[in-house]
Amino acid sequence: MAKETSNGDNSVPKPPTPSPLRNSKFFQSNMRILVTGGAGFIGSHLVDRLMANEKNEVIVADNYFTGSKDNLKKWIGHPRFELIRHDVTEPLLVEVDQIYHLACPASPIFYKYNAVKTIKTNVIGTLNMLGLAKRVGARILLTSTSEVYGDPLVHPQTEEYWGNVNPIGVRSCYDEGKRVAETLMFDYHRQHGIEIRIARIFNTYGPRMNIDDGRVVSNFIAQALRRDEALTVQAPGTQTRSFCYVSDMVDGLIRLMEGDNTGPINIGNPGCEFTMMELAETVKELINPDVKIKNVENTPDDPRQRKPDITKAKELLGWEPKVSLREGLPLMEEDFRQRLGVPKKN
Ligand SMILES: NC(=O)c1ccc[n+]([C@@H]2O[C@H](COP(=O)([O-])OP(=O)(O)OC[C@H]3O[C@@H](n4cnc5c(N)ncnc54)[C@H](O)[C@@H]3O)[C@@H](O)[C@H]2O)c1
Ligand SMILES: O=C(O)[C@H]1O[C@H](OP(=O)(O)OP(=O)(O)OC[C@H]2O[C@@H](n3ccc(=O)[nH]c3=O)[C@H](O)[C@@H]2O)[C@H](O)[C@@H](O)[C@@H]1O
């Protein structure tokens, strides 16, 4: 027997009818949102913000490589929340309206640990999430990175800058991986009409970063709080980063998802550009004036300068960061003190 079709010519199958429960009392939320990598640092803060809206139902898919259930413990068991142990390099079948695709190790130590897996996560993982978005008609946001600009020759970096990236270096699994992920997003958008959003995130810090994450802010705070450790400034110490507090970042990501622009859009804090030596001195001043600072060797291809031009974020999203580094560091210090069991002396 011929299949019933939408246009009567037997070629295009009719779309499935929505579940009869869709409009019943059992269907409570207006928006079902998937957050991949939601057990990680930025992801768990994003989940907190999304869960604060009672109209949202949130599903987290994470393989716990760098994330932890601990970051989500207040939501486990909540009727609007689900947590799935899942690796995005495998397909995932869930019915959702929006996908925040964050899954990917972010600290250089962790993304270099298994470089092949990192590139698979960026490429196959993003393909899988785009396939899901296509199947269910969901809008998808990719958390790309300022690392797509490589070791930038333009300062500050605008979204139009194509970057200066080593395609065969030790960081390539991450920065070239994210560049391919951006390409896939745009190809699915052009070819299949998928609604996409791309955020280029610049160095973000805050509570819940892994204590031994290896990134500079978490390293310096942990070193300042642990006895007999020095702040390890990697050579030459004049390299810069611009540090964005996590609540500002989450606000920017949600505005991008909710708005009308595909991006890519830089989200970061240009007001907080510091050299690594200046950052070490600020941590010393604010957290432990007795801590020593020592120079150590750097790793290959470390970008020498980085600062976002956020004109687009301001104009298109009405977004700009609010939290300065001097305000953000003490908030992170408090969280690290609790987790390390180092109370503040009065
Ligand atoms: N924090 C930053 O400064 C920064 C800057 C630029 C871009 N980003 C991007 O933002 C996202 C989140 O970064 P973060 O700082 O929260 O890092 P994070 O390492 O804390 O979180 C990443 C999460 O993804 C999960 N994950 C990794 N590989 C996975 C896989 N194959 N399948 C399922 N889950 C997987 C991890 O377990 C973890 O929970 C990443 O995509 C990262 O590239 C972060
Ligand atoms: O914002 C981004 O786009 C990217 O930024 C970071 O990459 P990176 O800037 O190299 O992050 P860190 O490892 O925190 O290094 C920042 C700087 O601090 C220096 N550093 C790091 C650690 C340390 O103990 N001491 C130190 O001086 C590094 O040499 C580097 O110059 C993140 O790790 C990436 O996930 C993210 O995509």
TrEMBL record:
For the biological process aspect of GO, one term held by this record is: D-xylose metabolic process
- What does the sequence similarity comment in the record state about its family? Belongs to the NAD(P)-dependent epimerase/dehydratase family. UDP-glucuronic acid decarboxylase subfamily.
> Which cofactor is essential here?
NAD(+)
The UniProt function text for this chain reads: Catalyzes the NAD-dependent decarboxylation of UDP-glucuronic acid to UDP-xylose. Necessary for the biosynthesis of the core tetrasaccharide in glycosaminoglycan biosynthesis.
Q: Where in the cell is it found?
A: Cytoplasm
Q: What class of enzyme is it?
A: lyase
Does the keyword Lyase belong to this entry? Answer: yes
Q: Does the keyword Ribonucleoprotein apply?
A: no
Q: Where in the numbering of this chain does the NAD(P)-binding domain appear? A: 34-330
Metabolic or biological pathway, per its Swiss-Prot or TrEMBL entry:
Nucleotide-sugar biosynthesis; UDP-alpha-D-xylose biosynthesis; UDP-alpha-D-xylose from UDP-alpha-D-glucuronate: step 1/1
Recorded GO CC terms: cytoplasm
| EC number of the protein | 4.1.1.35
Q: What is this protein called?
A: UDP-glucuronate decarboxylase
Sequence segments annotated as region (Disordered): 1-23, 294-313
Query: Which species is this UniProt entry from?
Result: Macleaya cordata (Five-seeded plume-poppy)
Query: InterPro entries in the record, alphabetically?
Result: NAD(P)-bd_dom, NAD(P)-bd_dom_sf, UXS-like
